[in-house]
Amino acid sequence: MKKIIQIGWKDLRVIFRDRAALILMLLAPFALTVGMGLVTGTLSSSGGGLSKVSVVVVNLDQSTLGNALVEVLKSPDLSQLLAVEENSDATAARAMLDADKTAAVVIIPADFTASVIPQDGQATEADIQIEVYKNPSRQISAGVVQSIIETFLSEVETGRIGGQVAVAQLIASGLVPQQQAAQVGMQIGTRLANERSNLQTLTLNTSQASVSEEPSFLMYIAPGFALLFLMYTVSLGGKTLLTERQEGTLTRLMTTPTGPSQVLVGKMVGTYMIGLAQMTILIAASALLLGLRWGDPLAMAILLLTTVAAATGWGMLLAAFSRTPGQVSSIGMAMTLLFGLVGGSFFGGTLSGVIGYIGMLTPNYWGQMGFNTLARGGNLQDLLPVYAALLVMAAILLVISVSIFHRKGLLQR
User: Fold this and answer.
1) Is 354 exposed, middle or buried (0-12, 13-18, 19+ CB in 10 A)?
2) Which of 240, 335, 233, 238 is nearest to 281 (CA)?
3) Mean pLDDT value across residues 84-112
4) By 3-state DSSP, what share of the chain in percent is helix, strand and coil, each rounded to 5?
5) Of 198 and 14, which is predicted with more confidence?
6) H-type helices in 174-259, by residue range?
């Protein structure tokens, strides 16, 4: 095992001493990402290029508390977080949600204010029935909208109780008639609810805005470019194997106690380490310099490990079928472009139809799907099918590659 790690570590050091290779591995994909961000305008927008959370509000109440909730959602304090659209048709609003045109739909029932605020000076049980419909593909954004609504209702309940206490005190004092006391109590409760709700949403805005916005174009295209250049990088691993055999250094290595299997596995480990280092640096740089947020760290780490494993399998298969380092370079570049096209790396998303099915044979397809899932708030469980597909791909390709290497006698002493 020690010899295998040493061979892999040697290949990693050689690659990272090559300036031309570093430019293609690291600088090129990052520069393309920044360029696309500048062209599309997502890089210069607020919040690290992330868009506002869209929400459609249907206010059927058209009374004190219903209007107050709409004002809270459209307040200047939440203007950088929410993009609120009012609609009078609940059915049409839900249709927008089904069409993935909004993150959430909030429906305020017609009797909302009447069910909360006492109208006759008597304490009543509130029957709050505000409906929040959440888009399952925008879990984080919809969850924040729900959190704001729940906070509002909590503070309204506080104000309602305060208003009922005021009504009881006014009636008991006998200083004002019962009907007038009810009106004063209603005003106190409404004002208290509104003031406390506004105060609470200010706190919510500052604490939730950093994790609640919808993924921007950069969140999709950045991993796409990283995956695109990953395929080029893994082809270099196979190229070094053929180059060393052509130059005779591999033959001299075989004269040492190091066995052929150790050499082959060491080369695979080296290619894997190079690809993993490349992806890790690019993802970390995107997070630190562009402010992109990649979600669950554990899910992200496993996605990197499995994606690079599948890409390494393709790199080794290319080396097994090639006869010269030149063939690896030319075919590797063609493979990089083809996989980027059918795997969706150029578009920041997976494709459908026949091309989509072909793309499922590439690490780009599954890697892009995994990154997009994380960008939308997915977790480790959501990515299990992606992990499984990448691991199966890696296992099959590596087994085929080893069989071809042994059949061709590439590592014979």
Assistant:
1) exposed
2) 233
3) 88
4) 70, 5, 25
5) 14
6) 178-212, 217-247, 249-254
- What pLDDT is stored for residue 44 in this prediction? 47
Paired with 82 in beta bridges are: 53
Contact 412, 403 (CB under 8 A): no
- Asked if 324 and 408 count as a contact pair (C-beta separation under 8 A), the reply is no
Q: What is the pTM of this model?
A: 0.57
Burial 144-180 (b: 16+ CB within 10 A, else e): bbeebbebbbebbebbbebbbebbbebbeeeeeeeee
Structure tokens at 213: 């916005």
Q: Which residue has the tokens 């300036």?
A: 19
Identity of residue 207: S
Distance, in Å, from the CA atom of 383 to the CA atom of 305, rounded to the nearest integer, reads 13
- Using alpha carbons, list the distances in angstroms from residue 3 to 248, 250, 251, 254, 263: 19, 14, 16, 13, 8
Segment 118-171, tens digit of pLDDT: 555 444 444 557 888 888 767 777 878 888 888 887 777 665 544 444 444 444
Q: Is the pLDDT of residue 334 over 80?
A: yes
Distance CA 156, CA 65 (A): 8
349, 368 in Cβ contact below 8 A? Answer: yes
Report the candidate in 222, 279, 281, 299 with the shortest Cα–Cα distance to residue 48.
222
What is the number of alpha carbons within 13 Å of residue 250 lying toward its C-beta? 22
CA distance 233 to 227: 10
How far, in Å, CA of 181 to CA of 47, rounded? 48
Which amino acid is present at 323? R
Kindly report the CATH number that applies to the domain delimited by 51-212.
3.40.1710
The domain limits of the chain are 2-44+215-407, 51-212
C-alpha span between 202 and 197 (Å, rounded): 9
3-state class of 84 per DSSP? Answer: strand
Q: Write the CB contacts of 51 (distance below 8 Å, at least 6 apart in sequence).
A: 45, 83, 213, 214, 216
Asked whether the beta carbons of 343 and 350 are under 8 A apart, the reply is yes
Tokens 């959501």 map to which residue? 382
Please give the helix or strand (H or E) that residue 366 lies within, else none.
Answer: helix 363-375
Q: What is the pLDDT of residue 46?
A: 37
- DSSP string computed for 313-327: HHHHHHHHH-SSHHH
* Spatial contact of 340 and 288, defined as CB atoms under 8 Å apart: no
